[in-house]
Design a protein that fits this description.
eight-stranded mixed beta sheet, two-stranded parallel sheet, 12 helices, globular
Length: 282
């Protein structure tokens, strides 16, 4: 069944995938077989242990600038770190994939950053709910976190605070040596950025930090503003104080985790100097 399923996923034939799974609800799939099936889609398997992975939830449903993507560029460029950024297309063409298609000239020999759309390296994830029609697959997937590559450090932005507990008590395939999750609450919304009230899960320990904020997500960004804010931040310009501070907080949090540096003021100084450098030269 899995061979047929793989072909259907590659063809993106949703109706046939659904039909196959409904006809094989009780088919027994062993964990090892399913892992090989998932792994068969992964590209660039030579990515080694020393890489850093950064990804978001891909499903916040909130219109916002591409902070995680911009931070990935900044950190990779400033500290010459090997980073793998994974994302997806967004609503209204504002996802990470859309961002890197627009700014693909930023990916190159000058920075050690690779970008992958999740559908290119794990296309099966698009069909998660349909796959769970099969009882064996469902029982495995609901107790699994799948990492495409073996990272030394991985950072994941999420929208569901309850996922923290799930990450603590679940099986990880290729579990990173160091793992940080973050989720924030601003107004009445959860968001996979660092702002408002942010909870971190760092190597099994939960920490909460309150960032100063007077705005609500409902009034933050219009569709027409997103590209302008992205471009301003890339050029070292401040079009929005709110999103500039979000970028700075994210940079500081990520660098502190990745480098084990505890002096936030020093990392913030690095950020401000680099941000001003971009204003002069980008």
């Amino acid at each position: 069944m899995l061979n047929t399923l793989a072909k259907l996923i590659i063809k993106k034939n949703t109706s046939e995938i659904f039909k196959l799974l409904t006809e094989n609800v009780a088919a027994e799939i062993k964990k090892e077989e399913l892992f090989r099936f998932f792994d068969s889609f992964t590209i660039d398997k030579e990515i080694n242990f020393n890489k850093i992975g950064i990804s978001g939830s891909g499903k916040s449903g909130i219109k916002k600038p591409n902070i995680g993507s911009i931070v990935s560029i900044f950190i990779s460029d400033l500290y010459r770190l090997d980073i793998v950024k994974v994302g997806s297309k967004g609503t209204m063409g504002k996802g990470s994939t859309d961002f890197f298609l627009k700014y693909k000239d930023l990916l190159g020999k000058s920075i050690k950053l690779r970008y992958y759309d999740v559908e290119d390296i794990s296309p099966w994830k698009k069909y998660y709910d349909i796959l769970c029609i099969n009882k064996s697959i469902s029982s495995i997937l609901k107790n699994l976190v799948w990492h495409e590559y073996q990272y030394s450090y991985k950072i994941v932005g999420i929208t569901e605070p309850e996922v923290f507990i799930r990450y603590l008590n679940i099986e990880h395939f290729r579990k990173p040596s160091n793992l940080m999750l973050h989720t924030s609450t601003i107004g009445n919304r959860n968001i996979d950025e660092i702002m408002g009230t942010t909870k971190y899960l760092v190597n099994g320990k939960i920490v909460e930090i309150q960032y100063l904020n007077n705005l609500t997500m409902d009034t933050l960004v219009k569709d027409t503003d997103i590209d302008a804010i992205n471009e301003s931040l890339l050029k070292g310009e401040i079009l929005s104080d709110f999103w500039f501070n979000c970028l700075k907080n994210t940079f500081v949090s990520y660098v502190s985790f990745l480098t084990n540096r505890e002096k936030v003021c020093e990392i913030e100084k690095d950020f401000l100097e680099y941000f001003n450098w971009r204003k002069r030269y980008c």
